[in-house]
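not sure who needs this but someone in the group chat was asking about Cytochrome c domain-containing protein from Bradyrhizobium jicamae so here u go. i didnt clean anything up, its just raw.
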Amino acid sequence: MTGWIALPISTTATLAQMRGHGGPVRALAISADGKSAISGSFDSTAIRWSLTRSAAEQVLRFHSDAVNTVALLGDKRAATAGADGRIAIWTFGKTEPDTVFEGHTAPVVALAVSPDGATLASASWDRTVRLWPLAGGAPRVLDEHTQNVNGVAFTPDGRALVSVSYDLSVRIWPLSGAQPPTVVAMPTPLNAVAAGADGEIAVGGADGKVYFLTASGTRAGEVAAGPRPVISIAISPDGALVAAAGIGGTVAVIDRKTRTLARTLVGPGLPVWSVVFSPDSRTLLTGGADNIIRRWNAATGEPVDPILMETAGDPLAAYAGDRGAEVFRACVACHTLGADQANRAGPTLAGIFGRRIATAPGYNFSEALKQLDIVWTPATVSKLFEVGPQAYTPGTKMPEQRIGSEQDRAALVQFLERATKQ
């Protein structure tokens, strides 16, 4: 089924606001006037929200898999893209997309709109970036990355595009002429990128750090946001702050001028998949693994809506004090443990040990994984997190993350041995 579906709007705003997705909130975008937002979720839907009324207005159902990224295009239009590799362009109120861009052969994970509104850039795990003319025409394909491309951002003057990848590089692509990109080698796989109004670039790494680069690509500092991978990043419109959301469940708010950690926003301890500032830079929206969109005071770090601090039952509550369970907490957004629990964005781990890779029932695995000769054992699971999913299981949809501590890997494996027995 496709189309925008109207939602009933509650007269009690605090009860209706920012709750509506049936899965983790993977993507967020706010309109230029700050009055509306759009979110994308692992539940395969996008929702358009009224921020002034704190209510959901419409649900967009089109994609056959997770909606990984969204963008507001102006003129009451939006773009959504996801794990099905498709990009849909919508006009608010219409029942079907105006246009569907197809060409990517793997999940699309990031979108960016050019400053003049004429071009949509997409980043995909097929290792390409594509530039789509919104007025129509064939896309320009940028294909020099050697691993999944996870983020794209236009420079504020619109003359270049910045892309980041698991291949440990930032690429700055000139958009006029035939000049090759500037390639900046980085020390870690990269998950996200943002460009400030002054041209400075901020990128989020799998090592939990935010790296700063000048517009020309010169390294200009770094800040440790936390111990877990940064998976979403935003620069406030006034240029003062950077927000870095992490798979560990916190959001680091960084002072750009001093390159220091100003404050840390602490939610329910589940991965925060998306973060965006309001146009006035005063409010921060975050989307997390508990299906809720939260609003925060960017200056103080306090939640704007106390009711949004309520959380669903902790699936790991029974394992309190277990180090392996705490390591696994970063995985609960995508994986369940019990035989009576369904697949999520990733397959259930129930009965994983002794099972061949890509054979869990009821989950649509990629053809690349089906060709791998791996049986899950304590040793192979440990190896997965030692070298990273991209190196050990190429073709996976799994976000790149590594566990550097041998003790933590051992604790995780021991926990899984206990928790996944059928």
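also Confidence is low (pLDDT under 50) at residues 1-17, 307-312. if thats useful
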